[in-house]
Design a protein that fits this description.
This protein has 1026 residues and is α+β, with helices and mostly antiparallel strands. It has 36 helices and 31 strands. The strands form five sheets. Strands 1, 2, 3, 4, 5, 6, 7, 8 and 11 form a nine-stranded mixed sheet that branches. Strands 18, 19, 20, 21, 22, 23, 24 and 25 form an eight-stranded mixed sheet that branches. Strands 12, 13, 14, 15, 16 and 17 form a six-stranded mixed sheet that branches. Helix 13 runs antiparallel to helix 18, helix 23 runs parallel beside helix 29 and helix 30 crosses helix 32. The two termini are 31 Å apart. Bound molecules: zinc ion.
Length: 1026
């Protein structure tokens, strides 16, 4: 995986979690207290302890060590969290754009000395209960993290990771498969033309089809033109074919060495065991070297620079005539200065975040562009940080105006500074972030410290956030112009700044295809007949290797018997407040209170359903009660950890054609702010503001832009949603709320010259949705705060009682399901049921401006509580690992592909950034034949079970405990029954399930494809073209 980091924490949004999250287990002896017993100077397994620091803010103890022989650095964060994490990070500083660190990141995972089987990394996904496994290439480091809640599993994964990183095979064949190669289009036919293939080659073509990534890449390359940041660490598609296997091995020898490594461990497992294993299995085998990988400081410019780049036009952009991007990027200070970094990142938030910030007022509100440029604000991922400000979705003729506004705004800030209340709101936000227990805390920490540590900054200092806060308050007290002075020196008087514009070029894709073709011909011209024969034979060899059944027995594995037999129980209490059902769940929330309300939309007229996502996007942002939208935003930041609304389509666990529809309101706050938070909700219920057209237009444009930008990143989700559309009533609504239909609808709204019709629609939706009659609530808080929370909720319900009105549901068939299965006469969820629903087959093709495809085929099967659902879950996992991965990724060259059993009883095949289209559809078919033939082993089944259970048992944070039950009515008992059915799945039930549900002729399936122009599909009348 390749990522261009923005700020470390922000970039986590883009990390692909495999749907897994951590648990909080209370232990009798605290890992955090035990770690305090280490002494500086103490020697442990070849390491010396350098520093031991309690970090009470984050509930952890940090232990810093150095490896004596090699100089490898080590940081352990002891914390009472069972979701333990390991990561090793190497400083990788390439000097060309061949993508050498990225291709290396892929190839080291293809087999190592102790684990020589092909692809141990992907195989471990099925032999472990990991909660996260991945690898990333950033601009100047490569990181290999994993996490798991099981101690034995931790050892197994650690062994595989260490061997992969320090002793990889790096076979030539791995380099061809993962990097690039010339090969006959059909490798079995020497007469077919030679083409470029390779996983990274295709991945980067995909990454560069996203205009936001293109822009971010150029900006970084041009702002730091003198060293490693001037090249593309992920690989520029046309430079990748310049890399040789020899260069790859050389890069490994110099960069993947302990003297160039930083190890990080996190969680409640004992540090000494980790050190012992790392020493014995890896570090003891090395001597110290001088890796010479430092990044020198960027020489400063004496005058500002300007540059221009082009991109492909975006058919889904909200306004096709406004597709230009312009931003000014400033070089800031060295990120290893922790306090300066803290100050600048805070300053950046003050300048750009939310409707009260000066740049929001000066750039967003005049609607010159659709949103800020994709790169915006503080970026601490390079040795010297940067700050960028600008717009996307703007007209070319506004260029000068935007530049002038940016300069003017900076002058205004220097003159006026910031309101004290905004600074307080920001510090409040930091307090909430420290208290909120995210389920991937270890991973967040690893990412948070990675960049500064990479340049020898002190990671422990970074963790001591309240010290920085205190220092910041002190600095402000001593000099009220502290922030203004920073703005003056870093922005006004800084000559090292780049103005970069980007505009669409109608023939951009053509030009790129032509350049690729030229590169290809250049390579082919250099080949002798002997070379061509060689290529053909190597292609066959690779195909044979990919098709061979793999012996993975060298790899460690957990057994099915290592899986916990029972689901842990979450206690909830059912009650009522003001006539509305409430679920209370006591949790160790560190003094935060989490509030949710589910409001069904059964009474909403059908023609308004398309507007519901827009309603959710704006309902907490337009102002309410006596507050205009600016004041509301300020109050939200000062008093809450956020307030939001989202659409919900919840399939029933028993019936395929039954589902619940609604919106979920969510918010959190510190205990002391509970009354303020409910006051804000009361105002939203009682008197939301909808009539500010200017404000609405800003929000609409940002939504439309965000949706349009997201497609090239999550195209497979859009393909899956579309493929499911005609298979169940829930699938249909899902497409309305979050599919291509919604993207196009928002584009239409954004293009409307006048939004008065939308302004008339929103209050109508509000009447149906914010109605206590159709509502149920949930509260997660500490036991001490529960009764107070209940009292506050009671008074909130009283405040909004005027919105209560009984209305007739729009659809006739409503199914009542009791919230508490033991109390059938108690309050219930009201589900829509369509017993006469007729699923139908449909194949839809969306032509998109991407060079790669996203494909999905979706099959209607059985719901959660059905006996065969468990078999289908295991089957999807097994087909992905044992068949589809090989066909779609290894042979086909797609970035990813597989099958997945969805919550609504829909079995979906998919591919991600795929150079093929019809070939992948036939790989799906072949996967079904493979499953029906039963040519898989007990080992294959057990591995699929491990993999399914690692998702089922993924940790849930205190904020989200009990939420599954609250939303979908699935109780711990129902979960336990499903668990037992998963354990019971065997060879016969898998073959039966494949035959019964996926077998040709009996299937009810849909297909959707997003991709470039496609002649085969165009000629096939069974496809609908969009
Ligand atoms: Zn990659």
């Amino acid at each position: 995986m390749f990522r261009l980091t923005r700020t470390a924490l922000q970039s986590l949004k883009r990390v692909r979690f495999s749907g897994q999250q951590p648990t909080w287990r209370q232990r009798s002896s605290s890992a955090r207290e035990e770690a305090l017993h280490y002494q500086p100077g103490q020697k442990i397994h070849g390491f010396t302890v350098k520093e031991v620091v309690a970090v009470p803010d984050l509930f952890l103890t940090a232990v810093k060590l150095t490896h004596d022989k090699t100089g490898a650095q080590y940081l352990h964060a002891a914390r009472d969290d069972s979701n333990n994490l390991f990561s090793v990070q190497l400083r990788t500083t390439p000097m060309d754009s061949t993508g050498v660190p990225h291709i290396l990141e892929h190839t080291v995972l293809c087999g190592s000395e102790k684990y020589p089987c092909r692809d141990p990394f992907f195989k471990m996904l099925n032999r472990s209960l990991s909660t996260f496994m991945n690898a990333f290439t950033a601009s100047d480091y490569t990181m290999y993290p994993f996490s798991t809640q099981n101690g034995k599993d931790f050892q197994n994964l650690l062994s595989v990771y260490l061997d992969a990183v320090f002793f990889p095979c790096l076979r030539e064949q791995d380099f061809w498969q993962e990097g690039w190669r010339l090969e006959n289009e059909d490798p079995t036919d020497a007469t077919t033309p030679l083409v470029f293939k390779g996983v990274v080659f295709n991945e980067m073509k995909g990454a560069f089809s996203d205009n936001e990534s293109v822009y971010a890449q150029h900006l970084q390359n041009k702002l730091y033109p003198d060293h490693t940041y001037s090249v593309v660490s992920g690989g520029e598609p046309l430079a990748i074919p310049e890399l040789t296997w020899e260069q790859l091995r050389q890069f490994h020898a110099t960069h993947y060495h302990p003297s160039n490594a930083r190890f990080f461990t996190y969680g409640d497992l004992p540090l000494e065991n980790h050190l012992k294993q790392i020493q014995e299995e890896a570090l003891s085998k090395f001597e110290r070297i001088n890796p010479n990988t430092e990044v020198p400081s960027q020489p400063l410019w004496t005058s500002p620079r300007e540059d221009h780049v082009t991109c492909s036009p975006d058919a889904l952009a909200p306004d096709p005539t406004r597709q230009n991007t312009l931003c000014v990027s400033y070089l800031l200070g060295d990120i290893t200065d922790t306090f300066e970094g803290f100050t600048l990142s805070l300053l950046s938030s003050l300048m750009i975040s939310g409707p009260n910030s000066p740049f929001y007022k000066s750039l967003i509100e005049p609607k010159i562009g659709s949103d800020f440029s994709s790169v915006v604000g503080y970026d601490g991922s390079t040795k010297e940080a940067s700050f960028s400000i600008g717009l996307q979705g703007m007209a070319e003729e506004d260029t000068e105006r935007v530049k002038q506004i940016i300069n003017q705004t900076i002058d205004d800030i220097i003159e006026n500074g910031f309101e004290e209340e905004r600074i307080e709101a920001l510090i409040h936000k930091i307090e909430i972030q420290m208290k909120h227990q995210s389920t991937n805390f270890g991973l967040s920490l690893a990412s948070y410290i990675a960049s500064s540590w990479n340049h020898d900054g002190d990671p422990v200092e970074l963790l001591r956030i309240s010290e920085s806060v205190a220092k910041f308050r002190q600095a402000l007290k001593e000099n009220p112009r502290f922030l203004q002075d920073k703005v003056k020196s870093y922005f006004k008087e800084n000559a090292h700044r780049l103005t970069l514009s980007m505009s669409p070029d109608e023939v951009y894709l053509e030009k790129q295809a032509k350049a690729e073709e030229e590169k290809l011909q250049e390579k082919i011209r250099a080949l002798s007949d002997g070379d061509k024969k060689d290529i053909y034979e190597k292609g066959l060899e690779l195909l044979a290797a990919q098709s061979k059944t793999q012996d993975a027995s060298c790899l460690p594995a957990l057994k099915v018997s290592d899986i916990e037999p029972t689901t842990p129980v979450t206690h909830v209490q059912m009650s009522a407040a003001g006539g509305v059902p409430v679920q209370y769940c006591e949790q160790p929330t560190n003094g935060l209170v989490y509030f949710r309300a589910m409001c069904n939309l059964n009474t909403l007229p059908e023609d308004l359903r398309l507007y519901v996502p827009l309603f959710c996007s704006v309902i907490t942002k337009m102002g309410c009660g006596a507050l205009d939208y600016r004041q509301q935003s300020q109050q939200k930041e000062l008093r809450t950890g956020g307030m939001s609304a989202s659409t919900q389509v919840i399939p029933d666990s028993d019936l395929m054609d039954t589902f619940e529809q609604g919106i979920l309101l969510s918010s959190s706050c510190l205990e002391r702010n509970l009354p303020h938070m409910f006051q804000l909700w009361s105002d939203i219920f009682n008197s939301p503001h909808f009539d500010n057209e200017e404000r609405l237009r800003v929000l609409v444009m940002m939504c439309a832009q965000e949706l349009a930008n997201g497609i090239s990143y999550s195209g497979h989700m859009y393909a899956m949603t579309r493929a499911a559309r005609h298979l169940t009533p829930a699938g249909d609504l899902q497409e309305t709320f979050g599919g291509m239909d919604q993207v196009k609808f928002m584009k239409r709204i954004a293009e409307m010259p006048n939004l008065s019709q939308v302004i008339r629609t929103l209050p109508r939706i509000k009447k149906h949705l914010l109605n206590p009659e159709n509502m149920r609530c949930a509260i997660n808080a500490t036991p001490q705060k529960m009764s107070d929370s209940a009292a506050q909720l009671e008074s909130f319900m009283k405040d909004v009682a005027g919105n209560r009105k009984e209305r007739k549901p729009v659809r006739a068939n409503i199914l009542n399901k009791p919230l508490d299965p033991l109390d059938v006469s108690g309050p219930s969820r009201k589900l829509i049921t369509e017993p006469t629903f007729q699923p139908c087959q449909m194949k839809t093709f969306f032509q998109m401006p991407f060079p790669v495809n996203f494909i999905s085929e979706c099959v209607r099967t059985v719901p959660f509580s059905h006996q065969d659902n468990a078999s289908l879950c295991i089957l999807a996992r097994m087909m992905s690992a044992k068949f589809l991965h090989g066909e779609i990724r290894e042979k086909g060259g797609a970035y990813g592909g597989g099958a997945k059993m969805g919550g609504g009883g829909l079995f979906s095949f998919y591919s991600y950034r795929d150079p093929n289209s019809v070939q992948t559809l036939s790989a799906f078919r072949k996967g079904i034949d493979w499953a029906k033939s039963g040519k898989f082993t007990q080992q294959d089944i057990d591995e699929a079970k491990l993999s399914v259970f690692s998702a089922v048992d993924s940790p849930v944070g205190p904020a989200d405990k009990g939420m599954g039950r609250f939303l979908s009515g699935v109780t711990d008992e129902m979960r336990q029954s499903h668990r037992q059915r998963l354990f019971a799945v065997d060879h016969k039930s898998l073959v039966d399930a494949a035959d019964r549900y996926l077998g040709l002729g009996q299937r009810t399936c849909g297909v959707a494809l997003l991709g470039p122009e496609n002649d085969i599909i165009k000629k096939d009348p069974s496809w609908i073209l969009k």
